[in-house]
Amino acid sequence: MAVYRSNGDIGAISFVAFSYLDLVALFLCLRLYESTPPESPRREHLKMAVWLLTTMLTAAFSYKVAAVLPLPVVLLVWAMAAATGHAGFFVFFRYRDQAR
Fold first, then answer.
1. Distance between start and end Cα atoms, the chain
2. Could you tell me the residue range of the domain that residue 78 belongs to?
3. Are 15 and 64 spatial neighbours (Cβ–Cβ below 8 Å)?
4. Element of type H or E holding 35
5. CB–CB of 58/81 below 8 Å?
6. How many CB atoms lie within 10 A of CB 99?
7. What is the pLDDT of residue 96?
8. Is the pLDDT of residue 61 over 60?
9. d(C-alpha 93, C-alpha 35), whole Å
10. Burial category of 50 from C-beta neighbours within 10 Å (exposed 0-12, middle 13-18, buried 19 and up)
């Protein structure tokens, strides 16, 4: 439906395709992460993939939202996206290591 309504806009089609592929990959990685034994080194690789896919999706949506906002709000949107990515990295990889 989104591709049909885009009227051939390659940017819009690319955004929709990327978003759907990213979500499918994210859900697949989450499923694999949950089914992997806790002591497996594969879990760390899957956790990195989950963080990366989530951060990329956040950046993609921030880019689309920022395109229609005034500059002060654009800066706020990108600051929030960056803070989310950094906080996710800290929680996924650094905080757990410090808690051990």
1. 48
2. 2-99
3. yes
4. helix 10-35
5. yes
6. 6
7. 63
8. yes
9. 19
10. buried
Q: Specify whether the CB–CB gap between 39 and 22 falls below 8 A.
A: no
CB 50 within 8 A of CB 26: yes
Could you tell me the pTM of the whole model?
0.84
**Number of structural domains found in the chain:** 1
pLDDT digits (tens, 9 = 90+) for 5-48: 888 889 889 999 999 999 999 999 999 999 999 899 999 999 99
Alpha carbon 87 to its chain's center? 13
In the block, which residue shows the tokens 């410090």? 98
Q: Which residues of 8-34 are buried (b: 16+ CB within 10 A; e: fewer)?
A: eeeeeeebbeebeebeebbeebbeebe
Residue 84 has pLDDT above 70, yes or no: yes
Structure-token pair, residue 24 = 């499918």
Tell me: pLDDT of 95 over 60. Answer: yes
